[in-house]
Input
Amino acid sequence: MPHTHQSGKAPRMPTPEEVELVGLVPLLEPFFRGSVVRDLMPAPLRDAMETHGLTPRHGAVLPQLLAGQPLTVSEIAHRLHVSVPTASELVGALSRAGIVNRAEDPANRRRVLVSLAEAYRPLLETFVARRGEPLLRALDGLTPGERAGFLAGLTAWVREVQS
Output
């Protein structure tokens, strides 16, 4: 059941165990600050993002394209939990910056396929690896069951935040 704040109602109070968990969240915040992210980003990718005024929202599109399979704008919208027009705007700005390519889907000419520009693939792979290092080290210390629980919890939290 979602823990959403409803106007006029007191928020659900966390249990002592939940207070400990919620207290850990602010400790992660410095890792998500712009300066930390900027320092981990390879210079050519950082320069392209800054030159074209691209934001973390634009950057969120890029890892979706790392698997190599082109995605439609609708698929990107679904993955990011944003509207199709929002995803289209994000992709358009990334395309103007030369970071992604847009092409007509040969199977359906009304659809546009989005892929990562090959020049940016190694830069993005490096950035994702750098960003993921602390998480991957933490996961290395977990059992398969703990990993599954962590993934389930994190996925549920993302879903709640994005809804």
Summary: The mean pLDDT is 90. Helices lie at 16-28, 34-40, 43-51, 56-59, 73-80, 84-96, 121-140, 144-162. The radius of gyration is 19 Å. The longest strand covers residues 108-116.
